[in-house]
Amino acid sequence: MDTLIHRSNERGSADYGWLKPNYYFSFSNYYNPANIHFGALRVLNDDFIMGGGAFPTHPHDNMEIVTIPLSGAIEHKDNTGGHGIIKAGDIQIMSAGSGILHSEANASATDPLTLFQIWVFPKLKNINPRYDQRSFDIQDRINKWQIVVSPLEHDNALWINQDARFALTKLEAGKSIDYINGFKDNGVFLVVINGSIEINDDILHSRDAIGINKTEQFSINATTDSELLSIEVPMSW
Known about the structure:
The protein is mostly beta strands. It folds into 2 domains: 11-135, Jelly Rolls, CATH 2.60.120.10; 138-234, Jelly Rolls. It has no helices and 21 strands. The strands form 4 sheets. It has a 7-stranded antiparallel beta sheet, with no helix packed on it.
């Protein structure tokens, strides 16, 4: 098993006033040639957006874009007619495909918004653009994985144009959980949203992450109450 730890204080960052992002991978003005992507996972941004903050209409193509609000709510609009407001507990996915224009805004003029925005390279290029969102019961992820994004029908998750799976868990202190790959030879990028965990004698704290490759299964021990996001992706595509 190969592992690479990404400490929260080693991430790239910026301050645009209304937007304060942290970058797990090279993005925008942050560039680290040794940290461009993890397999098909190209972008993982941890964003803080002030009340009233907004990304104006802009284009994307040939990228699977997943948004996970952690607090507050975000409003999405696109030129295919897609429109929605998503909040903590909701997941949004957009297949940019052959090309899409969209805007994103903090749905509140006063309350801050925090979210993960994640980009995954697609399996098939130039598909028809699409948008989807779903609410998930947070209670269904306590001490177990709740799969929220997957192309596999039996996972009952938001569909993605890639052999990739996103899952969330709220792991109580002292509990352990195994992660088993959904696809052979995939890697897993695991993010500690909050709390503290142990993997292979390594301790990870809030917003730390670890890339895990060349194994089909691994175990996680929670040293405090913890919330985790796993992003399983092909390492070549």
